[in-house]
């Protein structure tokens, strides 16, 4: 679809409310377009199964973080399961995706969900979100470590937050589960929450996009004692984790 027509469609017909047919957020209220796999229930089935199994199927009262929340599919799912005693924090720097995330939060009246128009990183401040095509593309991302400047990108300035600071200030509870899908920036997000990881040892679900992101993330998680299991294997084969989704857990109990 022509980008201009896609924008018009998303802003009008795409906002029509629907009920999620199946899957992790079955029965929730959603918007028609884009990403119809969200409300059809067909989005990332292996990841959905992993989230359903958290806490043996019961995460009432949990604190959870969704880094790279997009339209809020997992944010809403976690909030529905954590309930009013829980706390879910969703981070999404793309302004168009954040607006849809906010719309879905209001449509589902999940009081325990907090939303942040920001990217989790290893420092609090500002950064540039690179946009290739239009903002409604899922390819927007913070600059990769080895990414050269490109005239085709129209960067926009966004806020970055260091998650350890939000915990230390009391703004957020330490999480028991963190989903990280941040287009090549996972190592930076993890670098900003090392104190929280060491103290609370949450379950992590991480998607990897680049070799640098994967290698640096493993350098952070390995010394903390985390162990990795595959949720969605890398398309490059068993010797690679780039392009895959992985669960990281700490096998020994706290204390």
Q: What is the straight-line distance between the termini? A: 55 Å
**Looking at CATH, which topology would you report?**
Rossmann fold
Helix run count: 9
Largest sheet: 7 strands, mixed
Let me know the CATH homologous superfamily.
Vaccinia Virus protein VP39
Shape by Cα distribution: globular
CATH class: Alpha Beta
Sheet with most strands: strand arrangement:
5-4-3-10-11-13-12
Which class of secondary structure composition applies to the elements?
alpha/beta
Oligomer: single chain
Kindly state the number of beta strands.
13
Poorly predicted tracts of residues = none
CATH architectural name = 3-Layer(aba) Sandwich
Report mean pLDDT, rounded to a whole number.
90
Number of domains: 1
Compute the CA-based radius of gyration: 18 Å
Tell me the β content.
15-25%
Give the ordered list of helices and strands.
HEEHHEHEHEEEEEHEHHEHEE
Helical residue percent band: 25-40%
What does this structure look like?
This protein has 255 residues and is an alpha/beta fold. It has nine helices and 13 strands. A seven-stranded mixed beta sheet has the order 5-4-3-10-11-13-12. It has a four-stranded mixed beta sheet with strand order 6-9-7-8. Strands 1-2 form a two-stranded antiparallel sheet. Strand 3 (63-67), helix 4 (73-82) and strand 4 form a beta-alpha-beta unit.
């Amino acid at each position: 679809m022509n980008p201009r027509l896609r924008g018009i469609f998303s802003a009008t017909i795409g906002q029509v409310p629907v009920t999620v047919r199946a899957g992790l957020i079955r029965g929730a209220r959603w918007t028609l377009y884009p990403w119809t796999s969200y409300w059809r229930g067909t989005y990332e089935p292996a990841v959905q199964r992993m989230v359903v199994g958290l806490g043996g199927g019961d995460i009432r009262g949990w604190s959870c973080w969704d880094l790279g929340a997009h339209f809020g599919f997992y944010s809403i799912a976690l909030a529905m399961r954590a309930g009013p005693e829980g706390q879910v924090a969703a981070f999404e720097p793309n302004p168009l995706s954040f607006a849809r995330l906010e719309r879905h939060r209001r449509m589902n009246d999940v009081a325990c969900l907090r939303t942040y128009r920001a990217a989790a990183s290893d420092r609090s401040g500002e950064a540039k979100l690179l946009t290739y095509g239009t903002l409604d593309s899922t390819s927007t991302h913070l600059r990769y470590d080895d990414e050269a400047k490109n005239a085709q990108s129209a960067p926009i300035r966004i806020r970055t937050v260091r998650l350890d600071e939000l915990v230390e200030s009391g703004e957020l509870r330490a999480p028991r589960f963190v989903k990280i899908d941040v287009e090549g920036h996972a190592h930076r997000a993890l670098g900003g929450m090392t104190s929280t990881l060491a103290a609370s040892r949450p379950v992590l679900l991480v998607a990897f996009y680049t070799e640098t992101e994967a290698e640096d993330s493993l350098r952070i998680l390995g010394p903390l004692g985390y162990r990795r299991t595959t949720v969605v294997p890398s398309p490059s084969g068993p010797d690679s984790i780039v392009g895959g989704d992985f669960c990281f857990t700490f096998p020994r109990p706290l204390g």
